[in-house]
Amino acid sequence: MFKMFPKQWTPVLPVAEVKDTPVAVELAGESLVIFRNLEGKFGALLNRCPHRGVPLSMGRVTENGCLECPYHGWNFTTNGACIRVPLNDLKPAQLSKLSVVNFPTKIIAGLIWVFTGTGNPPELEVPESLLQPENRYFVHHEVWNTHWTRCVENALDYLHIPFVHQNSFGRELNDTARTNAIAQINIREITDGMRINSKINTLAHGIEIDWHKPNNVVVKFDLVGVGIPVRGHIFSIPINAQQTRFMQVILANPGIDKTKFDFNQFVAPSFEDRVIVESQVGEVPNTTEECNVGTDEASLRFRRWYHSVVVD
Ligand code: FES
Ligand SMILES: [Fe+2]
Description:
This protein is an alpha+beta fold. The chain folds into two domains: about 10-125, Rieske Iron-sulfur Protein (3-layer Sandwich), CATH 2.102.10; about 140-310, Naphthalene 1,2-dioxygenase Alpha Subunit, Chain A, domain 1. The chain is built from seven helices and 18 strands. The longest helix is centred in the last third of the chain and has 14 residues, at about 295-310. It starts with 8 loop residues before the first strand and ends with a helix. FE2/S2 (inorganic) cluster binds next to loops.
């Protein structure tokens, strides 16, 4: 299962979008159903009843905390166990053979995370900036028609800013990029990815960006030195080989009144990225393909990891 993205933890949807009805969601080519039972516990199950293959997302959440199939009413717990088959008198041993495939879940930063594999998952480790009180986050997500690796690479890439974003936050860099200025990119490994410090030699401030495997890029606007009071987390979540859920999780600095803050100033420019990224074809190629220069080092490290670990 999840051949294009196996054995990874990833957010899939904001908690706020799964209320009292089950939600169908495609993740890395597999159909899942996410539901929340009356105790607030979440389940992520294969969206196909093991009885006759009906999508469980067409069912309902029952008073006993289960997801009920709409066809013959079989009841499944958040762990996928079948605990009731109406109008049959089944022994526990018989019921135990009727479970639906389930996937581990966690709730972090107001997001539902799913592990794209079965059995015992590895510990999910996230940066400190995703462990803050939920009310400090602003979440926006949309579907892009591109492979998820193109989105990650775009988020790691500093040198597109003066061109792709010349009508928004890259306006000033556009002038600089037309001089003889040089960009310096310093990269060092961190526990679960890399830290990229990018700066143009004629400017006072650069930016620090972290990549956390597999699909999270953290943009530290709050460290830029110009007082932008947020930290951005970009998740590139594979829907299938042609589509990606582009999710931005923005952490406001303590004391920011979210009701008065314009988060759209961070969301709107991503449309400029989307036009470019959707024009690219397929997944990122391996490092020996396409032409590369020194400032592509972060992309090349990502490509190397992707081709040796994810798709090998
Ligand atoms: S198809 Fe789901 S209970 Fe029969
Ligand atoms: Fe961009």
